Amino acid sequence: MTPLIAGNWKMHGTLAEAVALAQAVRAGVAGADLLVCPPAPHLASVVQALVGAAVAVGGQDCHAAAKGAHTGDVSAPMLRDAGASHVILGHSERRADHGETDAVVRAKVEAAIAAGLVPVACVGETEAQRLAGEAESVVAAQLDASLPDGFADAGGVVAYEPVWAIGTGLSPTEGDIAAIHALMRRVLAARFGEGGTRLLYGGSVKPGNARAILALPHVDGALVGGASLVAADFLAIAAAAVAGRTPGG
After folding, report:
1. Is 232 exposed, middle or buried (0-12, 13-18, 19+ CB in 10 A)?
2. Rounded-to-integer distance, Cα 159 and Cα 120, Å
3. Domain-by-domain residue ranges, the chain?
4. What angle do CA 248, 238, 176 make, to 5 degrees?
5. CA 149 – CA 164 distance, rounded (Å)
6. How many other CB atoms sit within 10 Å of the CB of residue 121?
7. What percent of the chain has pLDDT over 70?
8. How far apart are CA 100 and CA 123, in angstroms?
9. What CATH number belongs to 4-243?
10. Banded model confidence at residue 247, pLDDT cuts 50, 70, 90
11. Which of the residues 86, 100, 161, 218 is marked catalytic?
12. Distance between CA atoms of 61 and 75, rounded to whole angstroms?
Protein backbone atom coordinates (compact mmCIF):
# COMPACT_ATOMS: atom_id res chain seq x y z
CA MET A 1 0.00 0.00 0.00
CA THR A 2 1.38 3.40 -0.96
CA PRO A 3 2.11 5.38 2.20
CA LEU A 4 0.16 8.60 2.76
CA ILE A 5 1.95 11.47 4.46
CA ALA A 6 -0.53 14.17 5.50
CA GLY A 7 0.49 17.57 6.81
CA ASN A 8 -1.86 19.32 9.22
CA TRP A 9 -0.79 22.96 9.16
CA LYS A 10 -3.28 23.83 11.90
CA MET A 11 -3.69 27.59 12.61
CA HIS A 12 -0.32 28.67 11.26
CA GLY A 13 0.93 30.96 8.55
CA THR A 14 0.01 33.96 6.47
CA LEU A 15 -1.30 33.46 2.94
CA ALA A 16 2.16 34.16 1.52
CA GLU A 17 3.74 31.66 3.89
CA ALA A 18 1.17 29.01 3.00
CA VAL A 19 1.74 29.43 -0.73
CA ALA A 20 5.52 29.35 -0.26
CA LEU A 21 5.27 26.17 1.81
CA ALA A 22 3.03 24.56 -0.82
CA GLN A 23 5.49 25.45 -3.55
CA ALA A 24 8.32 23.97 -1.51
CA VAL A 25 6.60 20.57 -1.32
CA ARG A 26 5.59 20.51 -5.01
CA ALA A 27 8.37 18.15 -5.99
CA GLY A 28 6.94 15.46 -3.73
CA VAL A 29 8.58 12.12 -3.03
CA ALA A 30 8.39 9.23 -5.44
CA GLY A 31 6.51 6.32 -3.94
CA ALA A 32 4.50 8.31 -1.38
CA ASP A 33 1.18 10.13 -1.55
CA LEU A 34 1.31 13.62 -0.08
CA LEU A 35 -1.56 15.62 1.41
CA VAL A 36 -1.38 19.12 2.88
CA CYS A 37 -4.16 20.65 4.95
CA PRO A 38 -3.81 24.44 5.23
CA PRO A 39 -6.05 26.80 7.22
CA ALA A 40 -9.39 27.31 5.46
CA PRO A 41 -8.73 30.91 4.29
CA HIS A 42 -5.61 29.72 2.44
CA LEU A 43 -7.03 26.53 0.93
CA ALA A 44 -7.94 27.79 -2.55
CA SER A 45 -4.60 29.57 -2.95
CA VAL A 46 -2.70 26.45 -1.91
CA VAL A 47 -4.72 24.45 -4.43
CA GLN A 48 -3.68 26.90 -7.14
CA ALA A 49 -0.05 26.73 -6.04
CA LEU A 50 -0.14 22.94 -6.41
CA VAL A 51 -1.86 22.69 -9.80
CA GLY A 52 -0.08 19.94 -11.74
CA ALA A 53 1.75 18.66 -8.66
CA ALA A 54 1.26 15.23 -7.13
CA VAL A 55 0.17 16.75 -3.82
CA ALA A 56 -3.44 16.62 -2.61
CA VAL A 57 -5.03 19.39 -0.54
CA GLY A 58 -7.48 18.94 2.30
CA GLY A 59 -9.42 20.87 4.91
CA GLN A 60 -8.91 20.65 8.65
CA ASP A 61 -12.58 20.37 9.59
CA CYS A 62 -16.07 20.77 8.17
CA HIS A 63 -19.59 21.30 9.50
CA ALA A 64 -22.07 18.46 9.42
CA ALA A 65 -24.56 20.57 7.47
CA ALA A 66 -24.11 21.34 3.78
CA LYS A 67 -25.20 24.95 4.35
CA GLY A 68 -27.06 27.08 6.87
CA ALA A 69 -26.83 29.67 9.62
CA HIS A 70 -23.56 28.48 11.12
CA THR A 71 -21.40 31.56 11.56
CA GLY A 72 -17.69 30.91 11.16
CA ASP A 73 -18.10 27.31 10.00
CA VAL A 74 -17.11 25.77 6.68
CA SER A 75 -19.15 23.10 4.92
CA ALA A 76 -17.84 20.05 3.11
CA PRO A 77 -19.24 21.25 -0.25
CA MET A 78 -17.36 24.54 0.24
CA LEU A 79 -14.11 22.66 0.77
CA ARG A 80 -14.78 20.56 -2.31
CA ASP A 81 -15.59 23.66 -4.35
CA ALA A 82 -12.32 25.27 -3.26
CA GLY A 83 -10.41 22.28 -4.60
CA ALA A 84 -10.00 20.06 -1.55
CA SER A 85 -10.05 16.29 -1.93
CA HIS A 86 -9.74 15.34 1.76
CA VAL A 87 -10.72 16.66 5.17
CA ILE A 88 -9.40 15.90 8.66
CA LEU A 89 -12.20 15.16 11.12
CA GLY A 90 -12.31 14.41 14.82
CA HIS A 91 -8.80 15.66 15.53
CA SER A 92 -8.12 15.57 19.25
CA GLU A 93 -7.84 19.35 19.31
CA ARG A 94 -11.36 19.60 17.91
CA ARG A 95 -12.62 17.02 20.39
CA ALA A 96 -10.94 18.79 23.32
CA ASP A 97 -11.28 22.45 22.37
CA HIS A 98 -14.74 22.28 20.81
CA GLY A 99 -16.30 19.39 22.70
CA GLU A 100 -16.78 17.24 19.63
CA THR A 101 -18.23 13.85 20.50
CA ASP A 102 -18.04 10.67 18.44
CA ALA A 103 -21.58 11.40 17.24
CA VAL A 104 -20.54 14.85 16.02
CA VAL A 105 -17.52 13.40 14.26
CA ARG A 106 -19.66 10.73 12.61
CA ALA A 107 -22.06 13.36 11.27
CA LYS A 108 -19.13 15.32 9.86
CA VAL A 109 -17.69 12.20 8.24
CA GLU A 110 -21.06 11.54 6.62
CA ALA A 111 -21.15 15.12 5.34
CA ALA A 112 -17.65 14.79 3.90
CA ILE A 113 -18.51 11.58 2.09
CA ALA A 114 -21.71 13.11 0.69
CA ALA A 115 -19.65 16.00 -0.71
CA GLY A 116 -17.15 13.68 -2.36
CA LEU A 117 -14.33 14.27 0.10
CA VAL A 118 -12.11 11.58 1.59
CA PRO A 119 -12.45 11.74 5.38
CA VAL A 120 -9.35 11.41 7.53
CA ALA A 121 -10.95 10.40 10.82
CA CYS A 122 -8.86 10.75 13.98
CA VAL A 123 -8.96 8.58 17.10
CA GLY A 124 -6.77 8.35 20.16
CA GLU A 125 -6.62 8.07 23.93
CA THR A 126 -5.64 10.60 26.58
CA GLU A 127 -2.72 10.04 28.92
CA ALA A 128 -5.09 9.17 31.77
CA GLN A 129 -6.84 6.57 29.64
CA ARG A 130 -3.54 4.97 28.62
CA LEU A 131 -2.28 4.87 32.20
CA ALA A 132 -5.57 3.23 33.20
CA GLY A 133 -5.03 0.52 30.59
CA GLU A 134 -7.96 1.73 28.51
CA ALA A 135 -6.15 2.76 25.31
CA GLU A 136 -7.37 -0.13 23.16
CA SER A 137 -10.96 -0.03 24.40
CA VAL A 138 -11.13 3.75 23.90
CA VAL A 139 -9.81 3.55 20.34
CA ALA A 140 -12.10 0.65 19.45
CA ALA A 141 -15.12 2.54 20.79
CA GLN A 142 -14.16 5.68 18.87
CA LEU A 143 -13.83 3.70 15.65
CA ASP A 144 -17.23 2.12 16.15
CA ALA A 145 -19.02 5.38 16.98
CA SER A 146 -17.19 7.82 14.69
CA LEU A 147 -17.26 5.93 11.39
CA PRO A 148 -20.46 5.53 9.35
CA ASP A 149 -21.16 2.43 7.27
CA GLY A 150 -19.98 4.02 4.02
CA PHE A 151 -16.56 4.94 5.36
CA ALA A 152 -14.49 2.23 3.71
CA ASP A 153 -16.26 2.50 0.36
CA ALA A 154 -15.46 6.23 0.34
CA GLY A 155 -11.75 5.50 0.74
CA GLY A 156 -11.76 6.78 4.31
CA VAL A 157 -8.48 7.06 6.20
CA VAL A 158 -8.03 6.57 9.96
CA ALA A 159 -5.36 8.42 11.91
CA TYR A 160 -4.32 7.23 15.36
CA GLU A 161 -3.05 10.12 17.41
CA PRO A 162 -2.47 9.51 21.11
CA VAL A 163 -3.64 12.82 22.60
CA TRP A 164 -0.72 13.05 25.02
CA ALA A 165 1.83 12.80 22.19
CA ILE A 166 0.54 15.65 20.03
CA GLY A 167 2.89 18.61 20.01
CA THR A 168 4.68 17.40 23.14
CA GLY A 169 7.70 15.78 21.56
CA LEU A 170 6.66 12.52 23.24
CA SER A 171 5.58 9.41 21.39
CA PRO A 172 4.48 5.92 22.37
CA THR A 173 6.90 3.04 22.08
CA GLU A 174 7.03 1.25 18.77
CA GLY A 175 5.31 -1.66 20.47
CA ASP A 176 2.46 0.56 21.65
CA ILE A 177 1.98 2.00 18.17
CA ALA A 178 2.06 -1.44 16.56
CA ALA A 179 -0.47 -2.80 19.06
CA ILE A 180 -2.99 -0.02 18.44
CA HIS A 181 -2.60 -0.24 14.66
CA ALA A 182 -3.11 -4.00 14.78
CA LEU A 183 -6.23 -3.44 16.87
CA MET A 184 -7.56 -0.88 14.39
CA ARG A 185 -6.93 -3.25 11.49
CA ARG A 186 -8.89 -5.99 13.27
CA VAL A 187 -11.78 -3.69 14.16
CA LEU A 188 -12.04 -2.29 10.64
CA ALA A 189 -11.75 -5.71 9.02
CA ALA A 190 -14.52 -7.07 11.24
CA ARG A 191 -16.81 -4.23 10.30
CA PHE A 192 -15.93 -3.41 6.70
CA GLY A 193 -14.11 -6.52 5.54
CA GLU A 194 -10.50 -6.83 4.50
CA GLY A 195 -9.66 -3.82 2.41
CA GLY A 196 -7.40 -0.93 1.74
CA THR A 197 -8.25 1.45 4.58
CA ARG A 198 -5.06 3.35 5.28
CA LEU A 199 -4.02 3.72 8.89
CA LEU A 200 -1.87 6.72 9.77
CA TYR A 201 0.09 7.43 12.92
CA GLY A 202 0.08 10.97 14.27
CA GLY A 203 1.82 12.36 17.31
CA SER A 204 5.18 14.16 17.22
CA VAL A 205 6.30 12.47 14.01
CA LYS A 206 9.70 13.88 13.00
CA PRO A 207 12.39 12.99 10.47
CA GLY A 208 14.37 11.38 13.29
CA ASN A 209 11.69 8.87 14.31
CA ALA A 210 9.70 8.55 11.08
CA ARG A 211 11.47 5.60 9.51
CA ALA A 212 11.12 3.34 12.54
CA ILE A 213 7.45 4.24 13.07
CA LEU A 214 6.49 4.00 9.41
CA ALA A 215 8.13 0.60 9.05
CA LEU A 216 5.81 -0.91 11.67
CA PRO A 217 3.10 -3.35 10.52
CA HIS A 218 -0.23 -1.72 9.62
CA VAL A 219 1.22 1.80 9.72
CA ASP A 220 0.38 3.12 6.25
CA GLY A 221 1.56 6.69 6.70
CA ALA A 222 1.57 9.63 9.06
CA LEU A 223 -0.49 12.64 10.06
CA VAL A 224 2.21 15.23 10.67
CA GLY A 225 1.74 18.41 12.67
CA GLY A 226 4.63 20.73 13.45
CA ALA A 227 7.11 19.03 11.13
CA SER A 228 4.78 19.63 8.18
CA LEU A 229 5.41 23.37 8.49
CA VAL A 230 9.01 22.85 7.34
CA ALA A 231 9.06 21.52 3.79
CA ALA A 232 12.41 19.75 4.18
CA ASP A 233 11.20 17.92 7.29
CA PHE A 234 7.87 16.97 5.72
CA LEU A 235 9.57 15.61 2.61
CA ALA A 236 12.13 13.78 4.76
CA ILE A 237 9.29 12.02 6.58
CA ALA A 238 7.78 11.02 3.24
CA ALA A 239 11.15 9.71 2.08
CA ALA A 240 11.47 7.75 5.32
CA ALA A 241 8.07 6.20 4.71
CA VAL A 242 9.20 4.91 1.34
CA ALA A 243 12.56 3.71 2.64
CA GLY A 244 10.99 1.94 5.59
CA ARG A 245 8.44 -0.10 3.66
CA THR A 246 8.86 -3.83 3.98
CA PRO A 247 6.97 -6.59 2.15
CA GLY A 248 3.74 -7.30 4.00
CA GLY A 249 4.13 -4.22 6.19
Report:
1. exposed
2. 7
3. 4-243
4. 55
5. 29
6. 24
7. 98
8. 12
9. 3.20.20.70
10. very low
11. 161
12. 9
Question: What is residue 169's predicted lDDT score, i.e. its pLDDT?
Answer: 76
Claim: this prediction has a pTM higher than 0.90: yes
Beta bridge partners of 122: 159
Burial of 149 (C-beta count, 10 Å sphere; 0-12/13-18/19+): exposed
CB-count exposure of residue 81 (10 Å: 0-12, 13-18, 19+): exposed
Task: Tell me which of 91, 93, 110, 125 is the catalytic residue.
Answer: 91
Query: 119-176: per-residue pLDDT in tens?
Result: 999 999 998 999 999 999 999 999 999 999 999 999 999 999 999 887 777 778 999 9
Instruction: Decide if 134 is catalytic.
Output: no
Q: Residue 30, Cβ neighbours under 10 Å: how many?
A: 9
Active site residue 161: yes
